[in-house]
Amino acid sequence: MLIDTHAHIFSDHFENDLDEVIARSKEAGIKKLFMPNIDSESVESMIALEERFPGYCYSMIGLHPCSVKGNHHDELKVVEKWLERRKFSAIGEMGTDLYWDKTYIKEQKNAFNYQVDLALEHDLPIVIHCRESIDLTIDLVKNKQNGSLSGIFHCFTGDIEQARKIIDLGFYLGIGGVLTFKNSGLDKVIKDIDLQYLVLETDSPYLAPTPKRGKRNEPSYLKFILRRLADLYEVSEDSVEKITGENALNLYRQ
Ligand SMILES: [Zn+2]
């Protein structure tokens, strides 16, 4: 079971060739795609896409840290409304980001805690984005972990200690294109982590893996990440696919 646990295929980048993108994804062996929401402006196109590809594309609901601004209370109300209306696979993507803008860090933390509470209330996993803020985010999760919180640190690029802390918190590491980048150093960290703690993701349309680096990313490129992991662990692609796929389906309760 090859699963793309993180793909923004509802983005404008796919509006002209979405059918082909999904066809290539199926051809590459991907069985399901999970779509992380951004904010109130992306929800409807995401849900429309899910309805177009039922049983293949699954929606999450949440507020991305880069969309946490002065109006984040209104944005969080939108998340809450949607949760009352229908089922989602996870709360996401949510998190913290100090790379683009540090202005709203207090609001980002508030929005994080608020969304964790929603996840606990609705018994859903969380999908976490963090950039230049991994230690801070690990602490936020630690403060809230009561034994029933689960999720993914998406696009994990931290060091071995951070990886171990995340695993100890009962979370998965989301592994994407960065693993294939020359000199990322992520391969050396991941080599010491058991496959049972990993899930695969593309983060389409961003972070295309080598040899597509710099191009628009799409779910079918998950095969390059799969191949790199199989090489790294010196196991078959089938076994990487099986273990990481089971992890993903367990987490998203599919
Ligand atoms: Zn994302």
Characterise the protein shown here.
The protein is α/β, with parallel strands linked by helices. The protein has one domain: Metal-dependent hydrolases (TIM Barrel), CATH 3.20.20. Helices cover 41% and strands 14% of the residues. The chain has nine helices and eight strands. The chain has helices at 18-27, 43-52, 72-85, 105-122, 134-144, 160-168, 186-190, 222-233, 237-251; strands spanning 2-4, 30-35, 57-59, 91-97, 126-131, 151-153, 171-175, 198-200. A five-stranded parallel β-sheet has the order 4-5-6-7-8. The protein has a three-stranded parallel β-sheet with strand order 1-2-3. Strand 2 (30-35), helix 2 and strand 3 (57-59) form a beta-alpha-beta unit. Helix 3 packs parallel to helix 4 and helix 8 crosses helix 9 (237-251). The radius of gyration is 17 Å and the shape is globular. It starts with a strand and ends with a helix. The relative contact order is 0.16. Residues 6, 8, 36, 93, 129, 203 line the site of zinc ion.
Short description:
The protein is α/β, with parallel strands linked by helices and 254 residues long. It has one domain (2-251): TIM Barrel (Alpha-Beta Barrel).
